[in-house]
Structure formats: C-alpha cells, structure tokens
Amino acid sequence: MGRQWSPGTGWQPVELSDAELRVATLAARGHTNRQIAGKLFITVSTVEQHLTRVYRKLDVQRRTDLAAKLRLDATGPGDAEGGGNGTAQNRLRAV
C-alpha cells in the first residue's frame, strides 16, 4: 500500500513519474480517460497505460480508490493540469 519491497533495502515508498501523477490526479478528480487525454494532449491509450502503471504501483483496484491513495504537496502553478514546472513539488505521498 504505497510502498514496494526491494531486496536489500526493504520497504520503500512508491513514487510516480510526473506523467503518471498528472494522469492519476485528473482521474482521481473524476475526469474520464478521454478528458484527461484532451487536457494533457496525449492519446487515450497513453492515459490507459499510465493508469495501469499507477494502479500497479499503488496497489489500487478501482479508479474510485485513487483519491484515497494520492495526496499532493503544494501543487501551485505546476499542478496536474499540465502547467508550470512543478516537478519537485508534485510528488506522491502514499497515505
């Protein structure tokens, strides 16, 4: 749950890529895959691929469970809507 096992180092927090985080945040806010694709200028297939990786990393079964697993630190102008360079700010924190 928000952590993964790594031989030699034990349990480590899971971190999503910036792209995975943008997609997951929009999905958790209730956007459809098509809406996410339009907002981020990517294909629906790419949205699906990102969500598949997010679900696996966070051990999430359903889209509705995403919001409970995500907590963003101060997003500011570089938030999940795609603007700014908030890469250092937008890190996943597993709850």
Written description of the protein model:
With 95 residues, this protein is mainly alpha-helical. The chain has a single domain (3-78), classed as Winged helix-like DNA-binding domain superfamily/Winged helix DNA-binding domain (Arc Repressor Mutant, subunit A, Orthogonal Bundle). It is built from 4 helices and 2 strands, in the order ββαααα. The protein has helices spanning 18-28, 33-40, 44-58, 66-69, and strands at residues 3-6, 10-13. A hairpin with a 3-residue loop joins strand 1 (3-6) and strand 2. It is globular, with a radius of gyration of 13 Å. The termini are close together.
Beta-strand portion reads: 5-15%
Number of helices: 4
CATH architecture: Orthogonal Bundle
Q: Spans of 5+ residues with little confidence (pLDDT < 50)?
A: 72-91
| Structural class by sheet pairing and helices | mainly alpha
Key traits:
globular; 95 residues; mainly alpha; 40% helix; single chain; Tscrpt_reg_LuxR_C; Arc Repressor Mutant, subunit A; 4 helices; 2 strands; DNA-binding
List the helices and strands and how they pair.
Elements: E1 3-6, E2 10-13, H1 18-28, H2 33-40, H3 44-58, H4 66-69
Helix pairs in contact: 1-3, 2-3
